[in-house]
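User: Fold this; tokens only.

Assistant: Input:
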Amino acid sequence: MGKRITHASKQGLLARDQQLLTGFPKRLAGVSILVNGTTYTAASAVAMFQARVTVATAVVTTKAAYQAAVKAADAEEIATAATVSGLVEAIYVAFGDDPAALADLGLVPRKKASMTPAQHLAASAKAKATRAARHTMGPKQKAAITGASVPAVATATPPVGAGPIVAPASMPGTAATQQK
């Protein structure tokens, strides 16, 4: 097996092959070249290069057509998505859970969620535990909570005639330390 050619180099190879196709008969018209045990004349080399260019050009044009088709399909899907969704919902409404009718349309019956009584009890207990853990309340419980009135705090004022406040002697910069 030969080396795999990447997309980026295919365009370069196509350009090179086109140059070889036009230049080979111009410069090597009467020459025979031996490559890997095969002798190539100008005519056989031109035929080989022409086949390579034709196939590579077909790849480019086919890829462009594919990309255009994908773009058109995406645009059509986007434009009709809401309508298709509505039609599918209408089919489910019309046929309910009739598996034969839904199968004819390529749809499957919708599964209904069903819980056993034990599952209901477990879910209820879990929901209560979650509310307790998060301290969540309903609107009636929130309305029942009221704040207690806080008594007014009087500001502390020194009693009249108590005399001046004297700082302790151990504090630097006070009158007691400055007298020493």
